[in-house]
Design brief:
Layout (H helix, E strand, L loop, with lengths): L6 H15 L8 H14 L5 H10 L5 H10 L10 H18 L6 E5 L6 H10 L3 H6 L2 E7 L2 H9 L1 E2 L9 H7 E4 L2 E4 L7 E5 L5 H6 L3 E5 L9 H14 E8 L14 E5 L2 E5 L1
Parallel strand pairs: 1-2, 1-7, 2-6, 7-8
Antiparallel strand pairs: 3-5, 4-5, 8-10, 9-10
Helix pairs in contact: 5-6
């Protein structure tokens, strides 16, 4: 239990985090946040939470202090080929449709938001490699974003534990990964296939700068926002999609419960939402 981080401090900090990122922490996260705050104050010789909170609000010009806080509180639990039917549908139906209906000189663009440590974005790449004919004719750009800068660095490094690859087909694992002690490193041929960036989905300016996309993967993120924030981020995604573009959500999420502007489609028993 923290001696310098009270429940009142928790509420103040929680409100500040929410305003900046739409992330809202439940009471069960108090101890985790308290441990981080106590350690940070001790390591940086900051005398009190009040001093820390002042620096966070008024003296964090480059955003690095807030970034450290976000890195400490965000949860990243993912692995390759998670909810694999989404990647199969993308490869087998959606990419061929978009390729057919999109001007030949325009790249198809896919966004993974949040991308965590890269497993989702690289899973997209690995599935698209199986559609070689379209890749010969069409440029496909993949962008991965996450608010956690440590996760972005892991994604760029592309080195994963056995758990991260535990559901991958053996042939794909052996073809595209190299064993490094107990870990698996993605082939260097694929390192540059994804543009990874630190970005906050709640920051409209950051999102606008990413440009327009044909497909957005945003799975298992919106369930952690409150109703107002979910609607705001969903509409940001809507604006970022080209006409007739698609968005994938996690199985526990339903776009119709958030906003009504997307068309719900069921393709091969998989739900996907279209602009």
């Amino acid at each position: 239990m923290s001696h310098s981080f009270s429940e009142e401090n928790f509420e103040k900090l929680n409100e500040f985090i929410y305003r900046k990122s739409a992330i809202y922490l439940e009471k069960k996260h108090y101890n985790k946040l308290a441990v981080f705050i106590d350690k940070y104050l001790l390591d940086n010789s900051i005398e009190s939470f009040t001093s820390y909170f002042f620096k966070l609000r008024f003296d964090d010009k480059d955003g690095s202090l807030f970034q450290k806080l976000v890195n400490a509180i965000t949860i990243n639990d993912t692995y390759f080929y998670r909810e694999n039917e989404h990647f199969e549908l993308l490869r087998d139906a959606i990419i061929p449709e978009l390729h057919k209906n999109t001007p030949a000189n325009r790249p198809l663009r896919i966004l993974s938001a949040p991308c965590s440590s890269g497993e989702e974005a690289y899973s997209i790449v690995l599935h698209l490699l199986e559609e070689a004919e379209i890749l010969k004719k069409r440029t496909i750009e993949i962008v991965g974003i996450d608010i956690n800068s440590q996760m972005i660095e892991k994604a760029k490094k592309a080195e994963y534990t056995k758990r991260s690859v535990h559901v991958m087909p053996e042939d794909m694992l052996h073809r595209w990964f190299e064993k490094k002690e107990s870990n698996y490193v993605l082939s260097s041929r694929l390192y540059t296939s994804v543009d990874f960036q630190v970005a906050n989905v709640y920051d409209k300016n950051q999102m606008r700068q990413l440009g327009k996309f044909d497909v957005i993967f945003s799975r298992n993120m919106l369930i952690y926002f409150n109703e107002a924030s979910r609607k705001e981020v969903a509409m940001t995604f809507y604006d970022m999609l080209h006409d007739n573009g698609y968005i994938f959500l996690g199985h526990a999420e339903h776009m119709k419960r958030i906003v009504s502007v997307f068309k719900t489609k069921k393709i091969d028993q998989v739900l996907v939402y279209q602009k």
